Automatic annotation (TrEMBL):
GO cellular component assignments: exocyst; plasma membrane
A Pfam family per the record: Sec15_C
The Exocyst complex component EXOC6/Sec15 N-terminal domain, residue ranges: 49-218
Name of the protein described by the UniProt record: Exocyst complex component
Role description: Component of the exocyst complex involved in the docking of exocytic vesicles with fusion sites on the plasma membrane.
Length: 801
């Protein structure tokens, strides 16, 4: 086993030595390392083996040197021989080189010149080639500068895009291109700022000039509507009339302005290029959304400013016109931007703005129109609202709520008309003389009946001069009612309403005029202190004729609206009740004033309640009162009696007034006689009082007003008559015996009344001559009075219990 191991080790050492001999020196490291990795002390044996191998090589070298030594010596000998020839040859070469250098020096110089030219040519060709690449870049950059100078920003952005994507990448290695590339973002920002500044200027400009744009748009809408109306009228009448325009400040269309407006539309008055330019710029820069948001935000702010009403706008129509012009101008611009741009504003955005504006406009008009008390101004406002709504409707905006608002404005218009006509009616009533209208000639008569539908065959048969029963205020009132209807009709024009609706509106407004204004004016007139009985009688006559004229007013409305009065929903005029109420109020005032006049005469009474004998004639104040009543009741003959209804009505008024006057006179006389402040009454005073009552009875029996049956009017004084008869006849036994019987002679005499008067007459003072004479002539009669007083008190106490 040991021999086998030694043999393997020797074989391995041989392989390593062969590998070392055949391998380069730099690669023997791993081979030598393997020697140390083998068995212990193997390197010693390897070293011994290596030393043996070195000795073998040395012997081989020595043998080889001995073999070639002679050849080496011969070679050295030959080299020594050649050295002399070589030195000679070297000298010849140097000489030849010198001569060659001298001969080629000029050629060298020329060659260097040629080389230098060739280099210059190459550089020039390279420069031209590079310049051909750079020149388009410089030209585009120069073009960019020119575009910026002439404010062609959108084209400048396109040029920048070409520079960045096409031209600059070709020559990006040059410094000037890097500078250009660095400047382009700054130029873009400048363009954004400039275009935004232009947009701000545009927004400010349209805010200032929106009223002009709106005025033009509204005028064109008015012209279009007027033209259509004229064409429709021409087709129906066969001729064309020049339309009248109502939107100019002085009511007429200036010819030069008309020619200008034929050329320029509302949109053409505004230069929208800043909007388009800014939109395109921001779109190219990829920032369109920012621009859209900014534009919409600014327009919303401007919308709020436009919708803010001017101070004292309600005072003049110009204030309303300027307000509407600004709003129309704003939305005309928005409509154009909506249609001319793609998405800058959307339909939803404009609808939102319009709904906001509509709510604000309606609120503003409601508030400001409520301050207006001039119907002409309200009518102008209505016309402006109609043109405003028609204009915006032509641009596609919904305006139904504006036409609904017109109904509220119509109510306001009616209120202002009613206030105006209230003043008109008051003035007519104040200037009226409340006497029948005198007519001297046929022309005057025709003039009156042309203003008022009066037809009375009896009056027509009379010769001139003659008098019409009503006063001057009747035809004036009738004419003013027609004027009111015309004024009310003006508001109904252009409201896009049917004839039936217009007819209904006219009738309702006329009813308000009759039931509220005219009725109130009549009531106030009747209550005025200076209106006497004659005037009240004339007012009754006037109201009767006005009531009869109501059917002519209905026909007048029917002729205007062409709506048959038989239509189911046709509103009727309430004039009948209005004038009936006025007559009743006048009648009541007649009764009241008549009684007040009676009270004034009664206050003039100056009885000497202690007189011994009567004066033998009625008192002066009473005769004056009776004469007044006679003349007053003659006035009632002027009440209208042209038909049976009026005759019965006039007779009833006269009879009621007469009966009321007699009752009031009787009551006043009774109160005078029984006044608690009157302490004593003589028989002479009773006789004088009886004479006055007799005159009252004579007046009642003289039939001051026809139509009373029998002694109906005299019954007003029956209480006084029975009381005075009782005291004049001194028939106490009959009174006391028949008291309580239905057929008693003194049935109307109340025991308390008789007792009160008797107490006044039984005063035992010396001034009472009547009882002094009783005591002298018949003392038993005084006892009788005492007995009667006791019995009357007994009756009074019995009644109270």
């Amino acid at each position: 086993m040991a021999d086998t191991g030694s043999l393997e080790c020797v074989t391995e050492h041989e392989r390593i030595l062969q590998e070392i001999e055949s391998t380069e020196t730099a690669c023997v490291g791993p081979t030598l390392r393997s020697i140390y990795d083998d068995q212990p002390n193997a390197h010693k044996r390897f070293m011994e083996k290596l030393d043996a191998r070195i000795r073998n090589h040395d012997r081989e070298i020595e043998k080889m040197c001995n073999f070639h030594h002679q050849g080496f010596v011969d070679a050295i000998t030959e080299l020594l021989k050649v050295r002399a020839d070589a030195e000679k040859l070297l000298g010849q070469v140097r000489d030849t080189n010198r001569r060659l250098q001298e001969a080629g020096r000029e050629v060298t110089v020329q060659t260097e010149d040629v080389i230098r030219c060739r280099i210059q040519q190459r550089n020039m060709a390279t420069t031209v080639e590079k310049m051909q690449l750079c020149i388009p870049v410089l030209e585009m950059y120069s073009k960019l500068k020119e575009q910026l100078e002439v404010k062609r920003y959108y084209a400048a952005l396109k040029t920048m895009e070409q520079l960045e994507k096409v031209y600059i990448p070709r020559v990006s290695q040059y410094r000037f291109c890097q500078i250009m590339a660095e400047n382009l973002p700054r130029l873009r920002e400048e363009i954004k700022e400039i275009s935004m500044s232009d947009l701000k200027d545009f927004l400010e400009s349209i805010r200032k000039h929106s009223d002009k744009v709106g005025e033009t748009a509204m005028r064109q809408a008015q012209q279009h509507r007027t033209f259509n109306s004229a064409v429709a009228k021409q087709s129906s009448t066969g001729h064309y009339t020049q339309p009248s325009y109502s939107l100019t400040h002085n009511g007429q269309m200036d010819e030069e302005m008309e020619e200008d407006e034929e050329i320029l539309t509302a949109q053409e008055l505004v230069d929208f290029s800043p909007v388009y330019r800014c939109l395109h710029i921001y779109t190219v820069l990829g920032d369109r959304e920012t621009f859209e948001n900014y534009y919409r935000k600014q327009r919303k702010k401007q919308a709020r400013l436009v919708l803010q009403p001017h101070a004292n706008m309600h005072e003049t129509v110009e204030g309303y016109r300027r307000y509407f012009n600004q709003i129309v101008g704003f939305f005309v611009v928005e409509d154009h931007v909506l249609n001319a741009t793609r998405g800058l504003v959307t339909k939803a955005f404009t609808d939102e703005l319009w709904n906001m504006a509509l709510a604000k406009i309606i609120a503003v008009l409601r508030t400001h129109s409520s301050y207006c008390d001039d119907p002409d101004l309200v009518l102008e406002l209505k016309n402006l609202i109609v043109i405003f709504a028609d204009t915006l409707q032509g641009y596609g905006f919904p305006v139904t709520r504006m036409f609904d608002l017109l109904f509220e404005v119509r109510d306001q218009y009616n209120e202002t008309l009613l206030k105006k006509w209230a003043l008109v009616f008051r003035e007519i009533f104040e200037l009226d003389n409340y006497s029948p209208i005198p007519v001297e000639t046929e022309e005057e008569y025709k003039s009156v009946i042309s203003r008022f539908p009066f037809h009375d065959p009896e009056v027509e048969k009379q010769d001139f001069p003659k008098k019409l029963p009503m006063s001057q205020s009747v035809p004036q009132i009738y004419s003013q009612v027609k004027e009111f209807i015309y004024a009310s009709l003006k508001f109904s024009e252009s409201l896009h309403r049917s004839s039936t609706e217009i007819d209904d509106m006219l009738r309702k407004s006329t009813n308000l005029l009759l039931t509220r204004i005219l009725s109130s004016c009549l009531q106030n007139l009747i209550k005025k202190p200076h209106i006497g009985l004659t005037e009240l009688v004339q007012i009754i006559i006037n109201s009767t004729h006005l009531e009869q004229a109501c059917r002519y007013l209905e026909e007048f409305i029917t002729n205007i609206t062409n709506v048959s009065p038989e239509t189911v929903h046709t509103t009727r005029l309430y004039g009948l009740s209005t004038f009936k109420d006025a007559r009743h109020a006048a009648e009541g005032e007649i009764y009241t004033k008549l009684n007040q006049k009676i009270d004034e005469f009664i206050q003039l009474a100056d009885y000497d309640w202690g007189m011994a004998e009567s004066e033998g004639r009625a008192s002066g104040y009473l005769m004056d009162l009776i004469n007044f009543l006679r003349s007053t009741f003659q006035v009632f003959t002027h009440l209208p009696n042209n038909n049976n209804d009026h005759a019965s009505m006039s007779g009833k008024v006269a009879q009621t007034a007469c009966m009321s006057a007699c009752k009031h006179l009787s009551t006043s006389l009774m109160q005078m006689l029984l006044d608690s402040e009157l302490k004593q009454v003589s028989m002479g005073a009773v006789q004088q009082f009886n004479l006055d009552v007799i005159q009252c009875e004579l007046f009642a029996s003289s039939e001051p007003v026809p139509g009373f049956q029998g002694d109906t009017l005299q019954l007003a004084f029956i209480d006084l008559r029975q009381l005075l008869d009782l005291f004049m006849v001194w028939d106490w036994s009959t009174y006391l015996a028949d008291y309580g019987q239905p057929n008693s002679k003194y049935l109307r005499v109340n025991p308390a009344t008789a007792l009160a008067l008797l107490e006044k007459m039984k005063d035992t003072s010396k001034k009472n001559n009547m009882f002094s004479q009783f005591r002298k002539n018949d003392r038993d009669k005084q006892k009788l009075i005492e007995t009667v007083v006791k019995q009357l008190r007994s009756l009074v106490n019995g009644m109270s219990s």
